[in-house]
Design goal:
The chain has two domains: about 200 residues, Glucose-6-phosphate isomerase like protein, domain 1 (Rossmann fold, 3-Layer(aba) Sandwich), CATH 3.40.50; about 170 residues, Glucose-6-phosphate isomerase like protein, domain 1 (Rossmann fold, 3-Layer(aba) Sandwich), CATH 3.40.50. The protein is about 45% helix and about 15% strand. The chain is built from 16 helices and ten strands. The chain is globular and about 65 Å long. The chain binds 5-phosphoarabinonic acid. The site of 5-phosphoarabinonic acid has 14 residues, from loops.
């Protein structure tokens, strides 16, 4: 469950402000739920994903787990951020410490160092590949796939390497789909009406998550519950829509940057996934809130000064996790040279929760509005719920801003220039 608190907003947002957005919200809701344009398939994905697809995902994950020390996930943007976010959320920032089949992400940059290091690491390992690309032609992903495909072919031979390649792509079109059909690679579907940044609840996220041992049914259960919960047009009864409204009010009051921050390091990639979701969905037509992220308390020691005292162009949305299953206590020390005995018997989780309260008060005082989102735990159910919460609030927020939250025309400009520089043939 996601609980939204407005406790730190009283100074910045009035009831009147919220009510004044009701009409925009109602229009946004009906726009989102109409069948006018494509890209809305994610809305019902938690209920629509077929049991056959789920069985296929689980059985591929089992095969990968039993045959491979390493799974390499090749993809960029929406084709990898959600999977990585989910694995870190459920396992740890250092998730590979705990996994028998280690999972590495590549093809999300053009860094030759990243490719070299992973090739080196994999030399003595058994390896499978999950290549993820909706269009099937993204250059970072395609280049990495060619390199790692060659690596597998050298290691296992062309015939045997086929059994180690899993392609997640559009079901009917694109170069990856074509190659998968020609070579006989196993394929998983990215539904045509689900865009990259909204695709984590398809095989894009679910296959790597399943390899990491996640209960994918429970992820979909959380997402389904969120899907059924966040439909009310009454702002006070719908925290998902309330989040969209609050951030648009703050934007209208001059807050052009949103910092999503968490007090748990394992949410670091969830913040990265959120940045792409909101940045690519809203940043168009010279409009949009710039999404940024920080991990506390770590970043309070690097960015805390700016946040307290710098140009207050931003607001914060803070995610805290209620349960602390670890209960790590500060031990007693009879010498007490470090003067920490006042904390004896307190858990690190408790100290973290006090850091949140102290920081939220200090930042509110410094004219930085704080929206507070609390989740209960970092389990599968909460992950699915939170993903859906953000996807829907993002789409609604985009509509209220007056942009199409499902396209990304701006990312083509650099690609055109790069292909020209690289001499790509016109007909490619
Ligand atoms: O959200 C998006 O559409 C993008 O971030 C894509 O996911 C990203 O560009 C990768 O595209 P593709 O999956 O076609 O390789």
């Amino acid at each position: 469950m996601v609980k939204l608190s407005t406790r730190y907003l009283e100074k910045f947002i009035t009831e009147k402000d919220i009510n004044s957005f009701q009409k925009k919200l109602t229009t946004a809701h009906f726009e989102l739920h109409s069948n006018d344009i494509g890209g809305k398939g994610w809305l019902n994905l938690p209920a629509n994903i077929s049991s056959e697809e789920l069985l296929k995902i689980k059985s591929a994950a089992q095969r990968i787990n039993s045959s491979s020390d390493v799974l390499i996930v090749i993809g960029i943007g929406g084709s990898y951020l959600g999977a990585r976010a989910g694995i870190e959320f459920l396992r740890s920032l250092n998730y590979n410490y705990f996994l028998k089949t280690k999972i590495f992400f590549i093809g999300n940059s053009l860094s030759s160092a990243d490719i070299f290091e992973l090739l080196k690491f994999c030399e003595s390992k058994d390896v499978s590949i999950n290549v993820v690309s909706k269009s099937g032609g993204t250059i970072e992903c395609a280049v990495a796939f060619r390199i790692f495909r060659r690596f597998l072919e050298k290691k296992y031979g062309k015939e045997k390497s086929r059994e180690r390649i899993y392609c997640t792509t559009d079901p009917t079109k694109g170069l990856l789909k074509k190659m998968a059909c020609e070579e006989g690679y196993e394929t998983f579907e990215i539904p045509p009406d689900v865009g990259g940044r909204y695709s984590v609840l398809s095989a894009v996220g679910l296959l790597p998550l399943s390899v990491a041992g996640a209960d994918v049914n429970e992820i979909l259960h959380g997402a389904s519950d969120a899907m059924n919960t966040f439909n009310s047009l009454e702002i006070s009864k719908n925290d998902c829509y309330k989040y969209s409204v609050l951030r648009n009010i703050l934007y209208s009051k001059g807050k052009a940057v949103e910092i999503l921050a968490s007090y748990e390091s394992r949410l670091k990639y969830l913040l990265e996934w959120w940045k792409q979701l909101f940045g690519e969905s809203e940043g168009k037509c010279k409009k949009g809130i710039f999404p940024s992220s920080l991990v506390f308390t770590s970043d309070l020691h690097s960015m805390g000064q700016f946040m307290q005292d710098g140009n207050p162009i931003f607001f914060e949305t803070i995610i805290t996790v209620l349960n602390d299953p670890y209960k790590i206590l500060v031990p007693h020390d009879s010498l007490n040279v470090d003067k920490l005995n006042y904390l004896v018997g307190k858990t690190v989780g408790y100290i973290n929760s006090q850091a949140f309260l102290a920081t939220a008060d200090a930042h509110t005082y410094a004219e930085v509005p704080n929206i507070h989102l609390q989740i209960d735990d970092t389990n599968e159910y909460e992950l699915g719920y939170l993903i859906y919460f953000f996807q829907k609030s993002c789409a609604i927020s985009g509509y209220m801003l007056g942009v199409n939250p499902f396209d990304q025309p701006g990312v083509e400009a650099y690609k055109r220039n790069m292909f020209k520089l690289l001499g790509r043939p016109e007909d490619t």
